[in-house]
């Protein structure tokens, strides 16, 4: 019979061996950048350099901005996200090589292949290599300027609904107070739903906000789910494909998938066709061009692929565009002189065009464009971009060999706040985006939509719809800070997307005739 002392000895030895193995394993992993002679942050055991993020002590945006300034002065630098070594690129010339010149070495993003629905894995944003290229080619025709022009009147209907809503609710001189993300979330969702899928909704009128309030929860996960995601992502990426987790709230994804399927069924049963995004996908799915000898079976989309892209467009466009509108209004409420100047520009252009918000009229509003760009600089919805090397690659003007599979990060928010490119970076100064000022700096230090062949496919749609939204608002209403709003706002620490912890509360007043 084995004595208690012997069992204790064996257990203690096993624990010591286990800890030693884990310690040596991490020591080896954490020597990666040192061995390559790359400037890096000293990691702490287990967390690498991501402790403040994993424990939600810093918001995603603050984490990445702080990281950039720890590395400032270096062309590139390394850190550890848990176990994962990542390289941050600070030099705009190297950014250009990765995103454009040598793009064929960096076609992919780092994606976690969780055991999750096809709707997620088939989304353009998650596709890799040739599969991504083919899908991107199939979707691009939906975003040509010709297509966008056919959507302008649909956006204007949503803008009029927004103005009607405000007019009905502004009852006194005190104005009408709103949480902007919620308000613009509803507006943006209506815009995308009608332009892309012919689904007409007036979420601002709908008292339960049914459609909008459900979709807005697409990234809401319980704390437990979020923690599990972080743990798998940072410490056990190898087991991801066995774990039924997702960055998205799957209830919302399935709800949206059903909405798309219903719209599709309706069109197929009535024979109705529209000149929109869903139609492009449906034509590709049913392969109307069966006689086209140039088409292979890979060019035909499956239903899951159609639904996946549709859901992606709704959520990618909804979150980012509503964030841009929210922070544009926030900055205009703080900077009243700029608000007045912008309104003057809008009203004088509209007067020339008999009050019509035509395509040509929109081209004559340079200040509007500059205000949106400066908002995107200070409040970029996406804080950093990622690419993965798909082949071994030597970084330009260096001896650093990036092995296939290495993650490189482009620190969007850091570049946007770097005083070398943007003096006094915390000041809202639209003039930084005048043609003269833009010509003074690299294109690669302003990346709210990414850049290169894998940039944001919805860029032009986003700018067209947010500009029209702002024109409709500013011509009839003044925007002010609510007495409950603290400036500057505090970032939410729980979201990877840009969010104010307590929301952005502003108040609208009717302008006198
Ligand atoms: C202000 C609004 C928006 C911002 C700031 C924004 C930003 C971004 C960024 C930073 C990326 C990554 C680009 C890269 O890695 O280089 C991206 C990708 C993407 N965006 Fe947007 N976006 C916006 C609006 C939209 C809209 C309206 C749609 C769709 C209707 C959309 C659909 C997509 C898709 C599908 C991708 C993935 C592209 C690919 O992987 O090929 N976005 N967006």
Topology:
Layout lengths: L3 H26 L2 H5 L14 H4 L5 H12 L4 E6 L2 E6 L2 H10 L16 H4 L7 H11 L5 H25 L6 E4 H18 L12 H6 L7 H13 L14 H21 L6 H10 L16 H32 L1 H17 L6 H5 L2 H13 L6 E4 L4 E2 L6 E2 L4 E4 L1 H5 L18 H5 L19 H18 E5 L23 E6 L3
Parallel strand pairs: 2-7
Antiparallel strand pairs: 1-2, 3-9, 4-7, 5-6, 8-9
Helix pairs in contact: 8-9, 8-20, 9-14, 12-14, 14-17, 14-20
The chain binds protoporphyrin IX containing FE (HEM).
The site of protoporphyrin IX containing FE has 25 residues, from helix 14 and helix 20.
What would you say about this model in short?
Belongs to the cytochrome P450 family. This protein is an alpha+beta fold. 51% of the residues lie in helices and 8% in strands.
Task: Describe the protein.
The chain has 513 residues and is an alpha+beta fold. 51% of the residues lie in helices and 8% in strands. Strand 5 and strand 6 (401-402) form a beta hairpin. Helix 9 (180-197) packs antiparallel against helix 14 (303-334) and helix 12 (250-270) crosses helix 14. The longest helix has 32 residues, at 303-334. It is globular. Protoporphyrin IX containing FE (HEM) binds at residues 124-125, 136, 192, 312-313, 316-317, 320-321, 324, 381-382, 385, 448-451, 454-458, 461-462. One of its GO terms (cellular component) is endoplasmic reticulum membrane.
């Amino acid at each position: 019979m084995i004595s208690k002392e012997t069992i204790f000895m064996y257990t203690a030895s096993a624990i010591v061996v286990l800890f030693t193995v884990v310690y040596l394993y991490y020591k080896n992993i954490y020597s990666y950048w040192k061995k390559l002679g790359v400037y890096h942050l000293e990691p702490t055991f287990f967390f690498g350099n991501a402790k403040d993020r994993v424990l939600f002590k810093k918001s995603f945006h603050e984490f990445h901005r702080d990281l950039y300034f720890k590395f400032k002065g270096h062309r590139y630098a390394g850190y550890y996200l848990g176990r994962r070594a990542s390289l941050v690129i600070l030099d705009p010339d190297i950014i250009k090589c990765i995103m454009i010149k040598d793009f064929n070495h960096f076609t992919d993003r780092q994606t976690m292949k969780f055991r999750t629905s096809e709707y997620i894995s088939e989304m353009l944003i998650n596709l890799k290599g040739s599969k991504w290229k083919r899908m991107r080619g199939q979707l691009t025709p939906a975003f040509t300027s010709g297509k966008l022009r056919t959507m302008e009147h649909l956006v204007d209907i949503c803008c009029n609904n927004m103005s009607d809503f405000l007019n009905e609710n502004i009852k006194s001189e005190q104005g009408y107070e709103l949480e902007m993300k919620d308000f613009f979330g509803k507006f943006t969702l209506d815009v995308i739903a009608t332009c892309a899928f012919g689904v007409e909704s007036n979420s601002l009128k709908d008292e339960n906000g049914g459609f909008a309030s459900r979709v807005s929860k697409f990234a809401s996960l319980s704390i437990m789910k979020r923690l599990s995601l972080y743990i798998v992502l940072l410490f056990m990426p190898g087991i991801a494909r066995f774990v039924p987790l997702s960055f998205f709230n799957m209830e919302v994804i399935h709800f949206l998938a059903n909405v798309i399927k219903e719209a599709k069924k309706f069109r197929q049963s009535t024979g109705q066709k529209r000149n929109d995004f869903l139609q492009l996908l449906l034509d590709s799915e049913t392969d109307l061009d069966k006689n086209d000898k140039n088409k292979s079976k890979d060019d035909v989309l499956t239903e899951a692929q159609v639904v996946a892209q549709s859901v992606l467009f709704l959520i990618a466009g909804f979150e980012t565009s509503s964030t841009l509108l929210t922070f544009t209004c926030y900055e205009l409420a703080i900077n009243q002189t700029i608000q007045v100047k912008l309104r003057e520009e809008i009203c004088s252009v509209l007067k020339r065009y008999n009050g019509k918000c035509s395509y040509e009229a929109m081209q004559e509003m340079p200040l509007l464009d500059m205000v949106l760009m400066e908002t995107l600089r200070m409040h970029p919805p996406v804080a950093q971009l990622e690419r993965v090397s798909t082949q071994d690659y030597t970084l330009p003007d260096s001896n650093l060999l990036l092995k296939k599979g290495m993650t490189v990060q482009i620190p969007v928010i850091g570049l946007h706040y770097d005083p070398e490119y943007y003096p006094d970076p915390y000041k809202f100064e639209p003039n930084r985006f005048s043609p003269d000022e833009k010509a003074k700096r690299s294109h690669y230090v302003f990346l709210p939509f990414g850049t290169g062949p894998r940039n944001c496919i919805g860029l032009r749609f986003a700018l067209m719809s947010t500009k029209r939204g702002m024109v409709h608002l500013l011509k009839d209403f003044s925007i002010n800070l609510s007495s409950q709003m603290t400036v500057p706002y505090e970032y939410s620490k729980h979201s990877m997307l840009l969010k104010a912890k307590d929301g952005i509360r502003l108040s609208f007043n009717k302008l006198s005739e």
